[in-house]
Amino acid sequence: MQGSLESPAVTLRKDFAARPQWEVIGLSRRMPQFPIADDIRFVTADMLKPSDLSAVSGEFESLTHLVYAGYSPAGGDDWAEQTSINAQMFENLLDSVCRAAPALRRILLMQGQKYYGTHLGPYRTPSREDDARHMPPNFYFKQQDLLAARSAEATWDYSCLRPHIICGLGMRSPMNPLMIIGAYASLSKALRLPLRFPGSPGAYRSIYQATDAKLLGRAANWALTSPQTTDQAYNITNGDFFRWEQIWEKVADLFDLPLGPPQSISLQQFMADKTSTWRELAEVHGLVTPDIEKAVNWSFGDYIFNCDWDIMASTTKARQHGFESFEDSEHMFSQILTEMAQARMIPPL
């Protein structure tokens, strides 16, 4: 399982480790700084260095399935550079695994809704897996095309999953919206402020979607084992839609805060001076980490809270092929925030 320190790999690693039919090997650029279950083995390698992968290729000999959830933000907003880096990482690993793993049966590529251009502005909704691609570059295109070409000449096949904003308990996951919402609401409460949506009014009322991390784990197990998922791609979300306006009402009630009108701010800028406030909260409540910068990726919040267009994917194909799991998104937000408070990731509600 590559990308095991980042979302969604953190969630997938835990889910697969709990299933007795899987023996999990985690692969990442560095060793994790958090506890690892005894039945998970970790190896380290830089995906951009073939020599690193060659040095650990002995670990690949018994592989039957590969889950690729790697991502590098290198390149920033230079889409061509970002695509080049992420495509090369994947190709290097694929080369190494294919040489070393004769028993390989299936590769699962974790993608996302940016496959459809959700990051570029309004697009066709609800998105379907066979929609026309947007103007490249997009590293998802490069990775999937490489998989399709290689599998046509191999004894293994592949599947692709396309979730959107994966929601779980992962504090170290850089794209976990729940930690952003929980920390922002906690700071608002500590500063005796109403809860105001920090994004644009248009995003507040646009249609949105999410993927529960546990649901994604179930989907990954299905995609790796079902004959129907061979060489197929699937949208994997909770199966419903919401508006941030509705979620913010739930969050305000949960934190016992008055709900204010939206007020557009840059979280990355306005939260920069809140480190001392969070440290005080951490000391009073015994939180897991006193360093909010290590727990929250505010720039991701600035991105998801400023999409002034609908973000919608059809999950019909997955249901038709046998994956029938779903989640109530409004309940999911409340449930995970409650679990975060219980785990002392955020202050008590």
Draw up the topology in text.
Layout: H1 9-17, E1 24-28, E2 40-44, H2 50-55, E3 65-68, H3 79-100, E4 106-110, H4 139-151, E5 157-162, E6 166-167, H5 177-190, H6 201-205, E7 207-208, E8 211-212, H7 213-225, E9 232-235, E10 242-243, H8 244-254, H9 267-270, H10 275-285, H11 292-295, H12 298-304, H13 316-320, H14 329-342
Parallel strand pairs: 1-2, 3-4, 4-5, 5-9, 6-8
Antiparallel strand pairs: 7-10
Distance N to C terminus:
35 Å
CATH class of the largest domain: Alpha Beta
Q: Which percent bin holds the helix content?
A: 25-40%
| Unreliable segments of 5+ consecutive residues | none
CATH superfamily of the largest domain: NAD(P)-binding Rossmann-like Domain
CATH fold-level assignment of the largest domain: Rossmann fold
Number of domains: 2
Mean pLDDT, all residues: 93
Number of strands: 10
One letter per element, helices H and strands E, the order comes to HEEHEHEHEEHHEEHEEHHHHHHH
Strand content: 5-15%
Q: How many helices does DSSP assign?
A: 14
The structure class reads alpha/beta
**Envelope shape:** globular
Q: What oligomeric arrangement do these chains adopt?
A: single chain
